[in-house]
Amino acid sequence: MSSSGPTRRLVLAAGASGFAAAMASVTGCSRTTAPLEASDAISRSRGARSADPDRAIRRTVAIGTMVLIARYHETAARHPALRSRLARPIADHRAHLAALTGVTSRSRRDSGPGRSSNWSAPSGIRVPAGRGAAVAALAAAESNAAGYRSELVGTVSSASFAALLAAIAASQATHGALLRSAGHELTVEPAPAGRLPDVPLDSSAVDALQDALAAEHAAVFGYGALGALLSGAALARAHEAHDAHRRRRDRLDQFIRRVGAQPRPAAAAYRLPFAVSSADRARRLAAGIEDGVADAYGWLVTVAGRGSSLRTDAAGWLTEAALRAAGWRRASRALPGLPDGR
Fold it and tell me: What are phi and psi of 196, to 5 degrees?
């Protein structure tokens, strides 16, 4: 493994007692300050941030995130029965905003969705009168936002910002899918296979591809171990995931050979991180497998070059893993693919 960047794998460890992770922060946005409104943080983006070539895009995405939070609050205010269901996406969006601005807001607006009497949504937000239509509108807004952020991943200059955008897009895609699923099993459409590299890759990108291949090897093994404890729709989804990971494993093998490297083989044996003795534990294992795959692709986004097809392909593969993880745990994560993805 090269020393050009931190290795960020979370896979079933060969000969280890649990998931192995060696992760380092890539966002550079861990600063916590006194309670401030997010808009204040954006207005203070001069000085140290003035040299940020992606500052305008960061600002636009942050404002869009605030509008999404406002939409959730307005929906919860009009449909109080949805408050508990909407709490997790709101918390995720606040984590997105903190990562984008470097400021964690702890004002009264954080008391819960639709609860603050001082909350004032931006003009133009209209919440459908029907509860189902209101949820559908939120799901559409999430999917649209995820698509926009995904398009930005390949264009930004900063590698860490590209990884952050990919994580936010993946989180928003899971929000939309979970809102639409209404508690049913998620159906995950595989991301495109990706375009084989047509230019040489540096050693850090090749190492990241090898890490992703290792994650896919572990995923194939893990899904083979949990199927016996699942049934019905969950078992069918596990079979689909197993097949998808086999295809992605084979595709990554092609990527690595294309750039003149030798793909690393699967480990001779894997040890599961815990005993899988029930359907709930099988779901937990599957979610952990997908978290590890997402982590590998988050790092691949970071090391792939700006404008490269590899960066955008990796972002799509990250979203696919995040969607599967969300389906297994029936909940989203704020920043899948990044250290401490919450």
Answer: -60, 140
Decide if 14 is inside a domain.
Answer: no
Mean predicted confidence (pLDDT) in 120-149: 89
The three-state secondary structure class of 10 is: strand
Task: Identify the pLDDT of residue 326.
Answer: 98
Residue 222's contacts (CB-CB under 8 Å, 6 or more residues apart) are: 12, 270, 272, 285, 286, 289
CATH number of the domain residue 219 falls in = 1.20.1260.10
Give the residue numbers spanning the domain of 120: 26-329
**What is the residue type of 265?**
P
99 falls within a domain: yes
Report the predicted TM-score, pTM, of the whole model to 2 decimal places: 0.83
Sequence-distant (≥ 6) Cβ neighbours of residue 123 within 8 angstroms: none
Total domains in the fold of the chain:
1
Whether residue 10 is contained in a domain is answered as no
Structure letter (DSSP) for residue 111: G
Residue 9 lies in a domain: no
Q: Which amino acid is at 233?
A: A
CB under 8 A, 24+ apart: contacts of 237-245: 237/185, 237/186, 237/187, 237/188, 237/327, 238/282, 238/286, 240/188, 241/188, 241/286, 241/290, 241/324, 244/188, 244/190, 244/320, 245/216, 245/219, 245/220, 245/293
Q: Is the pLDDT of residue 137 over 70?
A: yes
Share of the chain above pLDDT 90, in %: 73
Q: What is the pLDDT of residues 31-75, one digit of tens each?
A: 232 233 434 444 444 444 558 899 999 999 999 999 999 999 999
Question: Residue 330 is which amino acid?
Answer: R
7, pLDDT greater than 80: no
Which of 106, 172, 95, 165 is CA-nearest to residue 139? 172
Kindly tell me if the per-residue pLDDT of 177 is higher than 50: yes
